[in-house]
Amino acid sequence: MQQRQLGRSGLTVSALGLGCMGMTYAYDTAASRSESEALATVKLALDQGINFLDTAEVYGPWENESLLGRAIAGRRHEVIIASKFGFKLDAQGTVTGLDSHPDNVRAACEQSLRRLGVETIDLYYQHRLDPNVAIEETVGAMADLVRAGKVRYLGLSEVGVEILRRACAVHPIAALQSEYSLWERNVEPQILPACRELGVGFVPFSPLGRGFLTGQAPRAEGVADPSDIRADMPRFQGENYDRNLALVAVLKGLAERKGCTSAQLALAWLLSKGPDIVPIPGTKSCKHLAENAAAAEVTLSGCDLMAIEQTFPRNAAAGARYNAQMESLVNR
């Protein structure tokens, strides 16, 4: 697997990472998730040179970090671990708000280190901006973790240009993680240029549109479990689903002519957008992990890129990506 550097930070990772969220949370049903398959998927990722593993305290909650800790036992030296803090959780693990106060930054980090079974987190993100805490205060506390040796690099997730600039003035930010894919390109006009100006790498999450770009995602009205987060996402609902599926059908045809899958074409397109971009497609399956990894070997010509972008111009997707409550957590 090729390696890429996240901005000017000096942090080098595999060109594709692995999003671990779905191994314990968010998609399909609990019965569809297998710890043994998840452990095997992480092992296969490392064996194939995918060393950038993404988790968070809220995934599960807490379970995902513990699972990842078991998966990397004995192989810590091969792994770049990214985790996140920032949600307020009650004793049952229910999200009750946001909390990026310095005391919580420190406490969350200690708990994540314990669950992961490591002494240092390689990349530590603020998961969502807390409007009640100045970003300077939060990043200052995160910087203290770097000085204490508990964290190596800092990251932010789903913030806009102003917040990113203010954060970088306190401490170097290695990476900004936000949604970016063929059907979600709103970071292109302002956020990506700001990242490059500031030397911040970019980590796209949901690079396959939560499975939609593979052509296999369920219609919201037919998801097997209401806890599947796609059940409440407008792009998976009603006429939006049908319109988006028509776009994916064209993408599938382009992929077939290229001799790859829709997922591989979508990931190859993202990789072509710059050497500072490191997508983290999520999967809990060895089969899909192997498919995604092969995307790094797909080379796109200028004609290929033109055809893809004609199919998926900016704002091509029908419907908002989040419901109103989730959208309120995104800073732009």
Q: How much helical structure, as a percent, in the residues?
A: 25-40%
CATH superfamily: NADP-dependent oxidoreductase domain
What do the pLDDT scores average to? 97
Flag low-confidence runs: none
CATH second-level architecture: Alpha-Beta Barrel
Instruction: Estimate nothing, just give the exact number of structural domains.
Output: 1
Identify the overall geometry. Answer: globular
- Proportion of beta-strand residues: 5-15%
Distance between the termini: 33 Å
**Main sheet?**
7 strands, parallel
Counting DSSP E segments of at least 2 residues, the number of strands comes to 11
Radius of gyration, taken over Cα atoms and rounded to an integer in Å: 19 Å
Strand order of the largest sheet: 3-4-5-8-9-10-11
Number of helices: 11
CATH class: Alpha Beta
CATH topology: TIM Barrel
Protein structure class: alpha/beta
Question: What is the succession of H and E elements?
Answer: EEEHEHEEEHEHEHEHEHHHHH
